[in-house]
Each structure stands twice: as structure tokens, then as C-alpha cells.
């Protein structure tokens, strides 16, 4: 564990419990970024001419990691750009199912258009609520976060696969930003139609990169209108009108997309199964400790499966107190949010619990 922590210099000065807000940059990703810009500095267009080859390698690395053919891997700069492009390719008369109070980048984007919108409630019965809403409304699309950003409530991929098989005519579009990088994920086997995810959180890939994964029949159901000269770049976007190119109309940033590749290589060196095991262990311990202190909302307490994101109540005063202890977290209404990645430790949970007891005894 000490060797794993060495790769993240920020851990030397903080008890860093804020991965759900900003994932730490590893030394390996930082080294890639330095080397990349050094090559650009000394070579200019000679290096730029290798752009297509670099992006091909990125797609192949991403595709291999998530079990998705590289010609179905989109490279975009953030979740919102990809999601909004997708929505522009959907018939305006479509009915869309959302989760009430899901991530604003999902719900605001949908509600800013003329779609017929229905909702499922996020609580301890989330799966039942989703199934009932799918049965009642028969939506054209179901757009949702796999893991909720405020309190960490998580949908299991086995449940999502079951729902997709039960409602095959509904297009399942998932935000995986708070999910990818936390456990092994087989995209093709999941049956989810589209996954869009930024890489700066749990992938620890830095800012300015996100991925889109598409099932094979999705181009028949979505018709985005964006296009540009670089929509034709590389062997996976070689012909005019290709589907990936509609999500990638401009110059692609090899610094940021290459960072995803570097991050995946580092994850592979650690082992995604080890990462998953560590996160589940930390999540279990944290939930037990927070329950003892009575800090968790009922919807979280009553669920058997949970992510490693928790909202522990409090306000800006609690956040300020934790910051004074070099414990880094976020303020997310209705409380302070903490989140644990594989490089966190059980001892850090103990330090947090001690600090919380001190704060609440004041």
C-alpha cells in the first residue's frame, strides 16, 4: 500500500478524501504530460503529424480496458459536450426517464429541451422505482448516473443489464464519471447502450478528457448533427459521415487523451481487481463507522450495496474544521461529502472519525 501511495504526491500532505470532486494526478500521468509537451516544444508539427497514431492507441487502450471495440470508443473533452451532442441527435418528441435530483449536467441538459420527461425517485428503493417507471412510462431513453454524486447511492451493473433486457426498446445512457476506475467494468456485457464518463475523477487522468462507449447498434438510433474537418482523422474515423466523427468535430488534444492512456496503464500496473477490493473494503468500514455516529441518511443506511462516496451531513463550518486538520472533502448540500479511493487507508478513516467526534463534541 505504501508503494501505491508514493505515486500520488498529494497524499504526503493531505488526508485526501475528495476523489469524487477531483481525482489525484499520479506521477506516471504527470510524466506522460511532461514528455508530451516536451515533444511538442522541440518538434512542432513534426510531432503534431503523429496525432492520428496517438489517438488510435488511446482508443485501443480504452477499448481493451472496458471491453469495447475501438471503433466504438469516442474521445471527448468532458461529459457535457458528449451528452449534449447525443441529445441533439434524438427526436424532440422522445420521452426520457431521469432520476429525480440526479447530476445537473444530465437533468439540466434534458430539461432545457422539448422532451417529454418523467422521473424515478432516488431512495433506498431506487431499483424498484426505476423498474416501475420503465414499466409505466415506456420511455425512449433512460438517462442516469451509475453512482450518485451527492450521496454515493450506486446502481449495480447486473441490475442495469436486467432492465435493458426487460426493456430493449429503451436506450440506456449512463453517466459513468463517478464509477469508471472503481471496479472492473465490461461494457459490452453490461448491455448499457451508451456510457459517457469524464476521466478526471476515479481514473486519475487529469482534466480535459472523457470517453464515450457505444453498443454496436447505437448509430441506428442517434443522429448527431455536429461535424468538422477532424471528424475524418484516423483509421477509426476514416470516412465521411462516420458516427464517432460527429462527437469529435474539432482538433483532438493528444495531451489530455494521452493522459487517459497513461492512467489506464498505471491502473493496469496496480490491478483493477485490487483497486475494486480496496474500495469495497474502505466503503464497508466507512459506512459502519458513519452509521455508528448517526451521520448517514436513511436511504443509504438501508441499502446493502454502496459506493465509496458518503454525505455525512454538516455545513461549511464542518468543512472548514476538517480542512484545518488537512482532511480534504467537499461541501455538497445537504452536507459534507467524503470519498475514498484505493490509495486511501483504514487509518485515514479512523482519523476522520476522530475528527468528527471532536467536532460534534464542541
Task: Please count the beta strands (DSSP E, at least 2 residues each).
Answer: 12
Mean pLDDT: 95
Going across the biggest sheet, name each strand in turn. 2-8-7-6-5-3-4
Count up the domains: 2
**Largest sheet data:** 7 strands, mixed
Domain Aminotransferase class V: 47-352
Pfam family, one: Aminotran_5
GO molecular function: transaminase activity
InterPro entries: Aminotrans_V_dom, PyrdxlP-dep_Trfase, PyrdxlP-dep_Trfase_major, PyrdxlP-dep_Trfase_small
How would you explain this protein's 3D organization?
Helices cover 42% and strands 14% of the residues. With 362 residues, the protein is an alpha/beta fold. The longest helix is centred in the last third of the chain and has 21 residues, at 272-292. The two termini are 34 Å apart. It has helices spanning 2-6, 27-43, 45-48, 51-66, 79-88, 104-111, 126-137, 157-166, 187-190, 254-270, 272-292, 298-301, 316-324, 346-360, and strands at 15-16, 73-76, 95-99, 116-120, 141-145, 171-175, 194-198, 210-214, 309-311, 327-328, 330-332, 335-339. The chain is globular and about 65 Å long. The strands form three sheets. Strands 2-8-7-6-5-3-4 form a seven-stranded mixed beta sheet, sandwiched between helices. A three-stranded antiparallel beta sheet has the order 9-12-11. It has a two-stranded parallel sheet with strand order 1-10. The protein has two domains: 2-25 and 271-360, Aspartate Aminotransferase, domain 1 (Alpha-Beta Complex); 29-268, 3-Layer(aba) Sandwich (Aspartate Aminotransferase, domain 2). It holds the Pfam family Aminotran_5.
